[in-house]
Every structure is written in C-alpha cells, then in structure tokens.
TrEMBL record:
Transmembrane segments: none annotated. GO terms for molecular function: ADP binding. This is NACHT domain-containing protein. Residues 126-227 form the NB-ARC domain. Pfam families: NB-ARC. It comes from Atlanticothrix silvestris CENA357.
Amino acid sequence: MVSLKVSQSGKLLIKKARIQKIEQAKKERIEALGKIEKAWDMDEIFLREASKILEPRQNWDNAEIFAVAPATWKRFKEARQPIKADTFKAFCQVLNLKWENVAENELEHRKNLSEAPDISNFYGRTQELAELQQWLVQEHCRLVVIHGIGGIGKSALARHLVDKIADKYDYLIWLSLTSAPPFLEILIKLVHFLSKGEKEEGDISQLIQYLNNYRCLIVLDGWEEITDNESEDYANYSAFVDRVAKEVHRSSLLLLSRTRTPNIEILEGKLVRLKRLGALAYEEATEILKAEGISATDSELKEFSKRYSNPWILKRIAQKVQNVSPDISDFLENTSVFVDDVITQFLDQQFQELSKAETTLIYWVALRRNSATWHQLVQDSHQFFSYNQLFKTLDDLISKHSFIIKNIEDITTIYILDPVVLKYTTERFVQENFQEIFQVINSKNINDFELFITHNFITEHPEDEELNQEQMRRIVKPIQKMLLAELHIQERGIEEELRQVLSLLKDKGLSQGYGYRNISYLIAVCEKL
C-alpha cells in the first residue's frame, strides 16, 4: 500500500489553502442561511468533499460518517505521519493543490526529525562530536549511548551530530520516549517509516531486516523514561536493543539517557559505545554566556561558568541576570549560587529517580561540602552501609546517574557535587531534617533511620574548623530557625522539646549516635540566643 506524507513546505500550502477554503465556505453559508451555526464543523467541508472524490457513487450530502476518518485528515494537515496515497491526493484536490507540490520528496521521506528538539544555536562539545562521529560513521557502531544528568545537553549534542552526519544514512528517524510509549507503538512507527508507509505492523526480526537492507540511524531520546525493570514494555525495549547490539546489520541506534542502565552496560564493546556527558568546559560556557548577551571580564565569566556548569541551568541563570540587571559583577558579588523554583523542580524530578541508599550517600557527600574522601565516606557510613554497599552506591552515583563527580587533587581523590546540586541538596537535607525532627517532637515516637540519626550534622574532624563552621551555618542553624519559627507559632519552648527528643534517644539506646549529637548541637545554638 503506497502512502504519502506532507512536507514542511506542503504544510504551509495546506494551511493557506484551508483558510481560503473556509472563508469561501463561510461566505456561501451566510448567503444561503444568513448566518453561521455555532455547531457547524468546518472540517466537515473537507471530509465530505474528499469522500465524494474517493467514493463518488455514494451520496455524501447528508452523511454523518464519511469515507475518510477525521483522524486521517488531522494527520494530513499536521504533516506528522504518512497517509494512503489516494486519500492524500483527494485532500489535495479538495484544497485545489497539486499533490506533487505538497508531498515529501524521496529525500524528505527518508528523514523524520519531527520529534527532535529544534536547536538554533550550538556551542562547544568539539571533542565529543568528533568522538561520536568516529563511532557512528567510521567504526559503524551498532549502538551508541549518550548519558548524563538532566540539562547537560545530550539532546542538543545529538541533534547537532545528526545534522552533521545525516547524509551518511539512507534513513534517519528521531523518536522521543518522554511519554514512555509502549514498545509496540515505537516498533510500528519504525516499521512504517522504514517500509515507506507500506507496512502498518511488524516484529523485531522484520525491523532488523530493514536495518540490514539499508543504512539507518535511529535516535531514541529519553531512554530513562522506560527503564522500569518490572514492566513488560521494558523487557521488549531491552530485547530490541540487545538484538540491535549483537546481530549483524548496517545501521546504528543512538540512545539518549539520564542514566546508564545495567542491560546497556553489559553490551559495551567494540561496536557498542557509551559516552558520559560531563560539565561544559570554561571556553564552551563562555560562548553560551556571550550568546545570551552577558558582558563581563574573563575572570567574571570564568566564575559564572564555574558556578553554573550545567548548560540548561547556565542559560536559565544568564537569562535571569539579563532580565533583572546586566551587571554580572553585582550578581556574582551578592550571590553564592542562585537556585530558583524552576531549577528546584528540575532537580526534584531527578532526585525521585534515586534509591534511598543513593540519596543517603549524596547527603553524606554534601555534608562534607565537596571535600569528601573515600575513607571519610567509609567512616561516615560504617554504621549503616557495608563496604560493598557503599562501593556500589558510589559507583552508581558517578557512572549511572552522573550526580557525583570524582575529582583528583594531587594524589587524593575527593567526591564532589556540582555547585548548584550542592546547594539544592543541602537545602533539601535541611528541610527533610526539620520535618523529621518536628514530627518526632509531635508524635513522641522515633525510628532508627531518620536523617538526623544517620547523618552527622558536624563531621568529626576538629582540625577542619572552617568546614565545621560552614556546617553549623548551613545546616544546624537553618534547622534550628525553622523549628523555632514553627514551635513559636504553637507557643512551645524549643529547648524543652529538643531535650525530650534527647530522652527518647536515650530510651532507644541511641545516646552515643549521630542523633544525640545533632539534637545537642541544636540545643547549643538555642542556648546562645
């Protein structure tokens, strides 16, 4: 069955012709009836006239169901999917358009980027682009995965890459997995596209055959959205990726994901490559800032890009600065790291993907204020994590989620968070501790795994006085102020309530743990008021 798809230029022709046709129909309707009925569906004009062309022997004047479905008309005018050739030509005839001027040509038919992001400007990532191009074009890798924390620029990089290498492929399609579509839906789209609209269904084996017959590049954007290990769809997606990676064919699959899943990691080899996308280099961040209209000295641009190394966050903060004041020096001088509600929601979504153990470990790293060594993390977590659990969780946060960054200073390795993530994590930690302590105060009941029991607010390194002062300022005092404000509203004494929490801890045999110390820190701050 031959099908045709509207080109982008054809879409504009359709829009113009529709408007003219509707205006003409309105005029005729008014002349006949003296008015336009509110319930009159103008799309019926096109469906009725197309039906007369497709099935001329029937009388369609008073019909309520037509020879062509409204959904097909919608697909035609929105230029998103191919439709049957005879229906396509009928619609064009109704609009007084030549179908040849509306349909995609052969080259357009082989390229579908309708679900790809529109990237107007792209900066940097020269090394990453060269490496990815080498893997796909020269080495003919069957599977390439770009992974990294949200906002780091995976989709922008992939779109720029695709535009550069599009002419190397017979077929090119970009599909978004953001809405977690069923695998069957994606499979049908791929088979339909690669068969030039002749097939409406198929299986993985048939799809692999197309990948062998032609050189195709398939991009699946948002792989993390379908990685639910218990779902049948995830099993089907995984089976597809596994076969693409292992079977002989001429094509490539490019996956974009916030996380690196185990089933993908197992496949890594000569023809399966994984690329973790990290923070922007200073020079690349500077290009973005200048493009956003930020004017500053080299040292100011360097400081700005150091604080905001995530491209999405960098652009957002740069636009905020431009909206309020173009004086970047004033902004840098009066803020440490700026995090607004949108950035908070953005990071909230990514934290929700983490396990309890991963969140717990991120808090330990945040407490160390970007100075945590392996031995310090072992010390902080030894009561709650086994060595193996700590090792695996830290590896996942570095390699799988890209939340924690391994930084080598001299011969010492320290584990750090991006400045924005550090600020967000600290504020989240403070808020959760306040809520947990306040709940204990109200319920007079305590569990063994509240954050204030598992995490030491002030780490045990008296020689690092500067770190301890910062922990007091950023963690202990904010929690104390939140409790004071809440308890003051209820006219209850904060010290008395906190001492009762100490008694609860003693009763549970927790007088030697972090919890007892943390509550004591809060009481000490109250006594200084």
